[in-house]
């Protein structure tokens, strides 16, 4: 899964310190509940170190009722799609369902980069309309994490958040 953080306050002492708004917490919780209903429950998470990404994961994790191993990665905060792809390649081999919680524009670009074009048409259409806050792209990936590359994921679901 590739997830964009939920709605955050516009200002804080630094961009990195921006926390979720009340709506952001509700949206992240709703996203976690949706994924649980779809039986897409991660056992591993790679999360940006920014407060809004950490808060998104915390709300999602509570709704998911999962105890996924989590890596907070500063490179996910400001990294390009290549950096995000490399972070996913470093996920332990035994992880089965992985979520990356990051920021635009990198998460949107990453989702498009991973898509092999043969997935769910409606999900792709929704994703093409924009990767809003609290959005999630869910992929079926048929390779080991260390072999993850462009166009090796089949988009199976996309849940659009709100801005």
Give the helix/strand layout.
Elements: E1 2-4, H1 22-37, E2 44-48, H2 51-64, E3 69-73, H3 74-78, H4 81-89, E4 98-102, H5 106-114, H6 121-128, E5 136-141, E6 153-159
Parallel strand pairs: 1-4, 2-3, 2-4
Antiparallel strand pairs: 1-5, 5-6
Provide keyphrases for this structure.
single chain; alpha/beta; 6 helices; Rossmann fold; six-stranded mixed beta sheet; 163 residues
Main sheet properties: 6 strands, mixed
What's the arrangement of strands in the largest beta sheet?
Answer: 3-2-4-1-5-6
- Determine the CATH topology: Rossmann fold
| Beta-strand residue fraction | 15-25%
> Would you tell me the structural class of the helices and strands?
alpha/beta
User: Spans of 5+ residues with little confidence (pLDDT < 50)?
Assistant: none
Total number of domains: 1
CATH architectural name = 3-Layer(aba) Sandwich
First-residue to last-residue Cα separation: 20 Å
Q: Whole-number radius of gyration?
A: 14 Å
Determine the fraction of residues in helical runs and give it as a percent range: 25-40%
| Helix/strand order | EHEHEHHEHHEE
Give the count of helical stretches. Answer: 6
CATH C-level class is Alpha Beta
Mean pLDDT: 97
Number-wise, the strands total 6
């Amino acid at each position: 899964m590739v997830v964009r953080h939920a709605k955050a306050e516009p200002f804080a002492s630094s961009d990195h310190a921006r926390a979720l708004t009340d709506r952001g917490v509700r949206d992240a919780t709703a996203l976690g509940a949706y994924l649980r209903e779809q039986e897409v429950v991660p056992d591993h998470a790679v999360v940006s170190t920014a407060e809004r990404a950490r808060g998104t994961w915390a709300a999602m994790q509570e709704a998911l009722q999962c105890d996924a191993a989590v890596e907070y990665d500063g490179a996910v905060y400001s990294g390009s799609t290549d950096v995000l792809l490399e972070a996913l390649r470093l996920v332990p081999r035994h992880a089965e369902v992985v979520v990356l919680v990051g920021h635009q524009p990198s998460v949107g670009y990453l989702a498009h980069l991973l898509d092999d074009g043969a997935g769910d048409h409606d999900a792709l259409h929704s994703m093409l309309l924009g990767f809003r806050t609290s959005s999630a792209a869910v992929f079926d990936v048929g390779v080991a994490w260390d072999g993850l590359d462009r166009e090796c994921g089949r988009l199976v679901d996309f849940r659009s958040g709100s801005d």
